[in-house]
Each structure stands twice: as structure tokens, then as C-alpha cells.
Amino acid sequence: MMRWFPLLVLLVLVGMMGYFVIPFRPEALDTHRYDSLFAEAGKKYEVDPALVKAVAWQESHLNPDAKGGVGELGLMQLTDMASFEWADSEGIKTFTPAHLTHPRTNALAGAFYLSKMLKRYQDKDRPVVYALADYNAGRKAVLGWMEEAGATNSVVFLEQMDYPGTKAYIRSILEYHHDFHSDFNEGPPRPLEQSVSSDSLASLDGQVNRPNAAVVSAE
User: Fold this and answer.
1) Domain 32-202 has CATH 1.10.530.10
2) For residues 142 and 128, what is the distance between their CA atoms, to the nearest angstrom?
């Protein structure tokens, strides 16, 4: 019995560590804790809250303290340039990038930016595909993929996209968006939801990366 005692003690200690540590891992956190903020931000800037949440989940797994490789911050991994654009639009004189670690501020700024992207590509057959590409890769890359028919046809646009990571990023968010739709007790699918069909996802070839940090451009 005595020779098994150290092993038993070790197993108990490991079990206790798992009990206290696992609940604090990002993937173990409550995925609904910021739903009210996404709903508020989506309503304010006329963006489907399920899409706002999908982007936040893809970008940070809902970690308000997340930091990207080129300075992106918070839930939706926003850059200084994009966040200052939001602050200017709202007349917030005291804003600093450090405020992006506040979940509500980040959700509002992120929804504002998504709204801008969706409006920028509202004449396309699937604005959300172009908007998410811009959110992830920036305006310059998107313009390169919009040659000829790709300027209005999202299938051609995706075929001309030479960033596999961005293609996977879009697919992942569209899938998350579909999953999160029911979190907001919404009625019949809006045009955005209708665009997230099996055919739409099938056109996004490649593997899905989860999560993938975005480089947000404010151009």
C-alpha cells in the first residue's frame, strides 16, 4: 500500500489542478457572456449580432485581453487606426487604444467596422464574403482579387483569392455565424443568413482555421 501512496497523492494533485485550472481555459468559458454586447452593437450599427459574435469568436475566442501579432486588440482584434476611426465617428475625444480591452468598447468598434465593410461591398452578390476578406486581409488585397468578374461575383472573387488563410477565415466565420444565429432569438433568416448556404460554404475550399488573427485595415 505504501509504495502506491506517492502515485495516489500525485493523482489527487493532478485532479485538483484540473478542477481549478480548466474552467479558466478560453475554450471552457461561457460562449454567451457577451451576447448582450453583440446584440447592442449589432443594433446600433445595423449588423447581424450573430455575425459580430462570429467574428469575435474567430478572432479571439471571446478573450477581451487578446493581442495580435501587429497590435490588434480585444475581442474583435482591432488596430489603432480602425478604432480611432470609430471614436472619431462617435465624437469620443478621450479614446485611447487601451480602451479596446473593454469588451463593450471593442464590440461597438468592431460592429462599426463590419458595418462599414458591408456597406462598402453592398453592390456585390454576397457582400459578407468581400467584407470579411477586407476585415482579414485589408483593402489592397481585396482590390487585387476583384479583377474582372471578381468585382461582383463572389465565386470568381474566391477563385482569384491567393491567401488560403483568408479563404479559410471566411468559411470559418460563416459557419460560426450560422451556429450563433439562434443565440439572439432572431426570426426568419435575413439576406445574410440566406447567403450562408451549403453551396456558399462549398465554394470556400481549403481547411478551416480556428481561430485566425485578422489584420484590420481602416482604409
Assistant:
1) yes
2) 13
